[in-house]
Amino acid sequence: MGIKERKKREKDERKASILNAAMQVYAEVGYHATTMEKIAARAELSRATLYLYFKTKDEIFVHAIVSRSDYFGDLLQYIYDHREESKDRIFDAFWKSFRTFYKVDPVSFNATLYFHQGEMLRSLPEDLRLMLDRSGTRNYQLMCRIMEYGIDEGLFMDCDPRTLAETVWTAFLGIIHLENSKAAMSRKNHLEMTWDLAATLLREGMARR
Amino acid sequence: MGIKERKKREKDERKASILNAAMQVYAEVGYHATTMEKIAARAELSRATLYLYFKTKDEIFVHAIVSRSDYFGDLLQYIYDHREESKDRIFDAFWKSFRTFYKVDPVSFNATLYFHQGEMLRSLPEDLRLMLDRSGTRNYQLMCRIMEYGIDEGLFMDCDPRTLAETVWTAFLGIIHLENSKAAMSRKNHLEMTWDLAATLLREGMARR
Amino acid sequence: MGIKERKKREKDERKASILNAAMQVYAEVGYHATTMEKIAARAELSRATLYLYFKTKDEIFVHAIVSRSDYFGDLLQYIYDHREESKDRIFDAFWKSFRTFYKVDPVSFNATLYFHQGEMLRSLPEDLRLMLDRSGTRNYQLMCRIMEYGIDEGLFMDCDPRTLAETVWTAFLGIIHLENSKAAMSRKNHLEMTWDLAATLLREGMARR
Amino acid sequence: MGIKERKKREKDERKASILNAAMQVYAEVGYHATTMEKIAARAELSRATLYLYFKTKDEIFVHAIVSRSDYFGDLLQYIYDHREESKDRIFDAFWKSFRTFYKVDPVSFNATLYFHQGEMLRSLPEDLRLMLDRSGTRNYQLMCRIMEYGIDEGLFMDCDPRTLAETVWTAFLGIIHLENSKAAMSRKNHLEMTWDLAATLLREGMARR
DNA sequence: AATGAATGAGGTTTCATTCAT
DNA sequence: TATGAATGAAACCTCATTCAT
């Protein structure tokens, strides 16, 4: 009973610590330079031990991503559940959840961005790709529902809620993409400013007229 | 002399054909699976010959990208030069240039997207990174000028033109990113629809009120 | 005490069940693919437990082989003990004991064949090699005595009994070797036919003239 | 023309030298301890270069084996072509070709023996297995024809020539197998004596009566 | 100018075995 | 006694790049 649960919990903790180590290394050197060796060192384990918990390097990344993505899903779910209360400010709540998602753990967010590229997805084994897909789909559907609510309530312009969700979401993605690019170019960026302007544009643009 | 020029022209042609080959292979298998071997085969050359024209694999990609980017710059320049004529429809012209850029050569566009990721940029040698930076900057400045024009003319809301340019551009980038992701997941997408909605949102959102 | 004996008996039974498990796995996947993990699973034990009973993987195999080899020794001993009765048919009895040895447990026979290769033997620690050697020697000596009897009785041609024993034994080994080879090549074989012809040849060839 | 041929010849020589190196290492440490690293060192090449000539370690071995096997085929072919001349002594010529095969290059012979085990064959990729199969088949058929000739000429007893060929061949194999085993056990062996006795037994045993 | 040949630098993965509980 | 967890040691293979012709 208790013993089994403790074991399970310990195993989960160990897994989590590997995931953490992986994301730390990723933050420093990027996906390709993240070797099993480095993850192991960071997690203070041996390389072989990693394989006790995850079958491949990509599995580590996908799990890290999915677990983060679940957190994002929770944010969205919360917004949806409290939609009535925040009615008028629902777009802002929505947009803010993106920002929170990013700010809480930009590393994982970037890993997500990276793995969702065609190149990466295509090279992934079926099962991992499906995992990503599923976790993405959940969030996608939540976004759609929130948009749908806004449309139904006459807050947003009348349009396809899915396309609307995608438009907002991709606007956010693009901003992060550019942010990363600029960072790598050692250029200053003004993330908050861009976020704010984008929010304004979108908020006004999608408002019912 | 004529001879020297012919030589130069031939060399340029050969370079272009390598660039082409590289993009073709990239289209089929992605960046990492694009080996020098495959590029060489496609260009009907030997691997070693590639090195007579480009110092590294990444140099090939960067040149390919930059040359495409220049084409994009021309589109933007044209819009700017004819800004008076298309005054009222300037946002649409702007947005359409993005679509054209993508549609004329989606492969290069994607390569560009790929190389502008933090991960890629960071692993690039200084000179190549600079090359990308410069070619990006030119376009960036053109975008800014167009936005500036719109603001000054009272067509767009009053805001920082650079931030505005980025916002629009990143909205486009994000859409492509998602498009690729969906393609790799074998999911249907509705690129045109999303493009249209995004254009509507942005056009309205940034309009002077 | 009874308790001590029971413990001992239980331990022996456990050992035997591990040996069995090992041979089962070996039958399915061969020596190298036989991992401790698989043996453990088959024996319904954990990997680490195996090491309570046997020091190494090879020790398991050697024990399995030796125990089978003892059974073969018994067959030979029986023939020797009843040599007078089967006098005229002693070669056939001898040859038949080989066939029985093989047919009763082809898996162990093959494991034996495998371990008696130079490659395997050389990589074995001294003690295990000695174990194999000893168990082989016992049978070898029995074979020699049987041959000696045949020679002394004027049944077989006059020659060195050891060389004769080896000749017959190796003829058998070779047949099995080819049998396995053919099986792996998915070719039909005619084991019985070859056995019969070999027996005929040898019987006639070694008969006193 | 000439240049192409020289290149080809050089490439073949390089291949042969790799094969040689591999067999040398194999002779010293056996199949499993033969690493690409060791082969490369012996051939005075880098590990990667090996992969320029052979796709895998097993491919090296199979090629080495097959090339040896071809030599054996030549021996057999010669016997068959000169069957009339050696008529009465055809069995001895046959048997002697086995001995020659072994004595000229015992290392390759043993590698052959090793690879023709079920375990090895089963783990080989289809193409390599086929290669071994084909080269074995050629020799097998030659053996059969020689046996057939002996039977037709009334030299050998009337029986299935294929079974006869196998019986003789496996008798030889078995002797080598035991020889290796004894060598690994640091036991003296009397290869020649056993060969002679086996030859006698078989010659007499298969003689027409 | 063109190329075939060579290589160095890694990376992932698998297992037998040991240790702490 | 039994075991889950951890590890060290290798081995194979790929590819961008350089060099000699």
Description:
4 copies of one chain form a homotetramer. Chain A is mostly helical. Chain A has 2 domains: about 1-55, Homeodomain-like (Arc Repressor Mutant, subunit A, Orthogonal Bundle), CATH 1.10.10; about 55-205, Tetracycline Repressor, domain 2. Chain A has 10 helices and no strands. In chain A, helix 4 runs parallel beside helix 8 (about 125-150) and helix 9 (about 160-185) packs antiparallel against helix 10. In chain A, about 40% of the residues are buried. The mean pLDDT of chain A is about 90. Chains C and D meet through helix 1, helix 6, helix 7, helix 9 and helix 10 of C and helix 1, helix 6, helix 7, helix 9 and helix 10 of D. Chain A binds a DNA duplex (21 and 21 nucleotides) through helix 1 and helix 3.
In terms of quaternary structure, the protein is homotetramer
Give the beta-strand count of chain A.
Answer: 0
Give the tally of structural domains of chain A: 2
The CATH superfamily of the largest domain in chain A is: Tetracycline Repressor, domain 2
Radius of gyration over C-alpha positions of chain A, nearest whole angstrom: 19 Å
Largest interface: A-B, 50 and 51 residues
Please identify, by name, the CATH architecture of the largest domain in chain A: Orthogonal Bundle
Amino- and carboxy-terminal Cα gap of chain A: 61 Å
The overall pLDDT of chain A, averaged over residues, is 92
Count of separate DSSP helical elements of chain A: 10
- Could you describe the largest sheet of chain A, including whether it forms a barrel? none
